[in-house]
């Protein structure tokens, strides 16, 4: 009898526990698993330049100001408040008090000063520091009180406060050096080639609305996996909880299997574009160089490409036609007054006729009777780019232009577009991680290396490029965001009129998140799936494989 | 010829006829995109459905067969000719010439082929029409695919060198070139044929591999290689089994070529 009672009691306790667990929408704890696509090259947040290290910096670094990936607004981080003055030369922070690094070292203004000095040290060659360098000269950092810091730059820095989203504060005194962090997690273990284990930072300062300490997760395990097909397979098997960036094809496959796991946050910041080689010294026939320099020719090509079909067929509808250097996802900087390009092959032919081209028996010829034909290069193995060029082949054949496609391995392609300039047209993508136009200075200045259609010009080759130079410099030193926006709107206007880059599509920001993850809110800005990592938790069924 | 070889030969002949009559059988141009029906299933307009860009799969299959089946034997012929010439001469002459030829074969076998092809492709001019790029791809394969055959042919020629009939020919004052063409080559002909037949499927598969890497035949021209790229989308195969047709055709052709190879008795 006693045995039977004990059995009934135990059964009741187990059932009750199960019911309670099932009713709970989510609970603290658990280990989130996902993949990074390469070995992290550094754990020093000031030296980050590739994706894996960036992921670790995002999850471990404490920053003074955080860019909210969903609202695109700046939010207080380690700084309670800040004030930019002297036209963007000076920024004063008031810091949170009573904070500690992951190893228990107290956080003070001295740490911010130490970080800023290290960041701007020319010997360190910090890629993050480069974005603060507007002019030669020393950066002055003052700490008038233990909770206030004033940083003065030698010249105005445009979008100054936004740049601090990338600056993870280091400890000036911790024996753990850069491994002591102020972010939600700290690096607990690293097995080269295998994984990086991040554990919950017990000293993290943030709390949820109920006053519970964040983050909810106990740990995050980042598996190092270069192969994206294996990453997808592991997600399907339930071995990882999320995929931060999905392509359209894999999105559709997953959507057919389990619609609840995939998320399309809308057009992201990345774009795909085509451009013609306008380098005067390029080893191309002179008549082809002349075509590529003619604005009407470039505009006609742009007009004759059916972008809607590219989005629908190549990207399965997970992309939007692009018509400028800024994606609509960039809410503040996007110039919404730009004309939306319409697919119009008859209009393209009219434009070409104005420029002296004529259609003869289905073949377009220039004024010297040269057949209009060019070769587009792109990187081998990128299926969507090859498909885009193939579709462009058919679109342009409607106006009598023959397009050849050549795929090259990436180093050969880079050699051609940056050193030998032995190519006619190129189709590539631009990965944009920063909202601020200053990050595009290396594209729009005529002297810049990434001014891809005609890089490293000693003097602007055309009047409109000179105007681009002027506007980009003006916006970078303008005191107010309104003035900067006005200047950068004009830049977008000129680019739309001149079409040095023929923008094709803005790809959607897509991710896959297991239903086991509670609190996810995918965003268009990177990191799409775990930007709010501190608020994520594993739900009732937190076992891996839950998405099955 | 065994019954199995006859069946293989008939199948190959049928495929060749289909390939030659592609223009009549399938009037749809292989590059035309029917953008309203991408990834379409079989229909009366498109018996094998359409690919991701809406192009008629049957048309692409037949034209792709034409490209692969015409150019792979051409490349095989080129590589067999090089191997026959070098191998026979090396086996017949022996000495330092044989050592140099075999050392060259070993050296080129040790080269990383893929990187070599990547480098050669990167150095070629870009403004070449698709057909020329196809010919270049197969020409490169032909020029680089002789090493394995040369060793086999050299070993066989070495055996011929010490034969009585060759001794007799030499003693009658036969010149080396005549010896090579009239005495050695006819005796090694079955071996050349076997090497030629072996090379054809090898080059078809090499082209397929290069196309999967995006380095073979350029779009929009079809080949078996770039048709097989559809298999990257593996999960879609179960839902669209007709996409397996290019693979079935490739396996069939390769098997047929293997079956009609001269048997051991014939080669000897």
Q: Could you explain the architecture of this structure?
A:
The complex is a heterodimer of chains A (548) and B (268). Chain A has helices at 2-23, 51-60, 109-119, 127-130, 160-163, 228-237, 248-257, 286-293, 295-303, 307-314, 345-354, 383-397, 410-420, 441-444, 463-477, 481-498; strands at residues 31-36, 65-67, 74-76, 79-85, 90-95, 140-145, 148-152, 185-191, 195-200, 219-224, 242-243, 262-276, 319-321, 358-360, 363-365, 373-379, 402-408, 425-430, 501-513, 517-518, 537-538. Chain A is α+β, with helices and mostly antiparallel strands. In chain A, strands 11, 12, 13, 16, 17, 18 and 19 form a seven-stranded mixed sheet that branches. In chain A, a hairpin with a 4-residue loop joins β4 and β5 (90-95). The longest helix of chain A is centred in the N-terminal third of the chain and has 22 residues, at 2-23. The two termini of chain A are 43 Å apart. The relative contact order of chain A is 0.15. Chain B starts with a helix and ends with a helix. Chain B has 268 residues and is mainly alpha-helical. In chain B, α3 packs parallel to α6 (130-144). The radius of gyration of chain B is 22 Å and the shape is elongated. Helices cover 71% and strands 0% of the residues of chain B. Chain B is built from 13 helices and no strands. Mean pLDDT of chain B is 84; it is low at 264-268.
Helix content of chain A: 25-40%
Calculate Rg of chain B over CA atoms.
22 Å
Largest interface: which pair?
A-B, 31 and 28 residues
What fraction strand of chain B? under 5%
Enumerate the spans of chain B where pLDDT stays under 50 for 5 or more consecutive residues: 264-268
């Amino acid at each position: 009898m006693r045995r039977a009672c004990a059995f009934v009691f135990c059964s009741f306790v187990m059932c009750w526990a199960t019911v309670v667990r099932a009713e709970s929408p989510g609970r603290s704890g658990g280990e989130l698993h996902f993949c990074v696509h390469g070995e992290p090259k550094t754990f020093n947040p000031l030296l980050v330049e590739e994706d894996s290290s960036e992921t670790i910096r995002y999850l471990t670094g404490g920053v003074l100001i955080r860019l909210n990936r969903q609202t695109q607004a700046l939010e207080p981080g380690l700084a309670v408040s800040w004030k930019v003055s002297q036209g963007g030369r000076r920024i004063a922070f008031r810091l949170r008090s009573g904070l500690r690094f992951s190893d228990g070292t107290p956080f003070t203004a001295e740490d911010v000063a130490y970080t800023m000095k290290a960041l701007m040290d020319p010997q360190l060659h910090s890629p993050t520091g480069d974005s603060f360098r507007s002019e030669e000269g020393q950066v002055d950092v003052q700490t008038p009180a233990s909770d206030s810091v004033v940083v003065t730059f030698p010249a105005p820095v445009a979008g100054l406060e936004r740049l601090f989203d990338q600056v993870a504060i280091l400890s000036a005194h911790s024996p753990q050096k850069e491994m002591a962090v102020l972010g939600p997690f700290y690096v607990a273990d690293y097995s080269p080639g295998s994984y990086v284990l991040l554990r919950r930072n017990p000293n993290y300062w943030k709390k949820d609305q109920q006053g519970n300490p964040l983050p909810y997760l106990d740990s995050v395990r980042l598996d190092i996996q270069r192969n994206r097909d294996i990453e997808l397979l592991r997600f399907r098997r339930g071995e990882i909880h999320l995929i931060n960036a999905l392509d359209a094809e894999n999105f559709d496959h997953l959507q057919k299997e389990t619609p609840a796991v995939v998320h399309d946050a809308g057009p992201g910041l990345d774009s795909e574009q085509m451009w013609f080689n306008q380098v005067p010294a390029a080893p191309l026939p002179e008549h082809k160089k002349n075509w590529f320099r003619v604005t009407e020719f470039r505009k006609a090509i742009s007009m004759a490409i059916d972008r809607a079909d590219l989005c629908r067929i190549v990207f399965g509808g997970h992309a939007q036609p692009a018509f400028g250097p800024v994606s609509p996802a960039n809410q503040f900087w996007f110039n919404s007054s730009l004309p939306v390009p319409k697919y119009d092959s008859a209009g393209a032919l009219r434009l070409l006729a104005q420029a002296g081209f004529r259609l003869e028996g289905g073949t377009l010829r220039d004024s010297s009777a040269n057949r209009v034909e060019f070769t587009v290069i792109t990187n081998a193995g990128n299926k969507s780019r090859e498909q885009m060029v193939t579709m462009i082949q058919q679109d342009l054949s409607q106006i009598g232009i023959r397009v050849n496609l050549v795929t090259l391995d990436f180093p050969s392609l880079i050699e051609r577009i940056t050193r030998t300039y032995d190519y006619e047209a190129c189709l590539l993508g631009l990965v944009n991680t920063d909202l601020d136009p200053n990050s595009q200075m290396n594209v729009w200045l005529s002297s810049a290396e990434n001014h891809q259609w005609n890089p490293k010009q000693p003097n602007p080759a055309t009047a409109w490029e000179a105007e681009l130079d002027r506007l980009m410099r003006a916006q970078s030193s303008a005191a107010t965001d309104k003035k900067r926006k006005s200047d950068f709107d004009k830049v977008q206007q000129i680019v739309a009129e001149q079409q040095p880059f023929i923008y094709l599509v803005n790809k959607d920001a897509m991710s896959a998140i297991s239903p086991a993850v509670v609190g996810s809110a995918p965003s268009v800005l990177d990191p799409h799936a775990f930007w709010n990592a501190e608020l994520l938790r594993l739900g009732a069924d937190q076992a891996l494989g839950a998405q099955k | 010829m065994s019954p199995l070889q006859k069946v293989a030969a008939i199948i190959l002949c049928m495929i060749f006829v289909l390939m030659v009559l592609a223009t009549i059988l399938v009037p749809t141009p292989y590059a035309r995109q029917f953008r309203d029906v991408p990834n379409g299933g079989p229909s009366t307009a498109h018996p094998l459905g359409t690919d991701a860009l809406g192009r008629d799969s049957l048309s692409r299959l037949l034209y792709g067969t034409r490209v692969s089946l015409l150019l792979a034997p051409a490349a095989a012929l080129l590589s067999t000719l090089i191997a026959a010439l070098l191998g026979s001469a090396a086996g017949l002459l022996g000495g330092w010439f044989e050592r140099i030829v075999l050392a060259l074969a070993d050296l080129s076998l040790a080269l990383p082929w893929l990187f070599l092809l990547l480098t050669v492709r990167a150095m070629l001019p870009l403004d070449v029409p698709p057909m020329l790029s196809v010919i270049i791809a197969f020409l490169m394969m032909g020029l680089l695919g002789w090493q394995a055959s040369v060793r086999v042919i050299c070993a066989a020629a070495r055996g011929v060198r010490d034969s009585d009939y060759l001794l007799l020919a030499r003693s009658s004052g036969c010149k080396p070139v005549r010896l090579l063409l009239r005495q050695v080559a006819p005796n090694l002909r079955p071996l050349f044929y076997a090497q030629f037949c072996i090379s054809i499927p090898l080059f078809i598969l090499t082209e397929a591999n290069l196309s999967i890497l995006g380095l073979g035949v350029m779009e929009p021209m079809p080949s078996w290689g770039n048709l097989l790229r559809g298999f990257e989308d593996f999960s879609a195969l179960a839902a669209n089994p007709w996409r397996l047709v290019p693979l079935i055709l490739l396996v069939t052709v390769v098997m047929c070529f293997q079956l009609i190879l001269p048997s051991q008795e014939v080669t000897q």
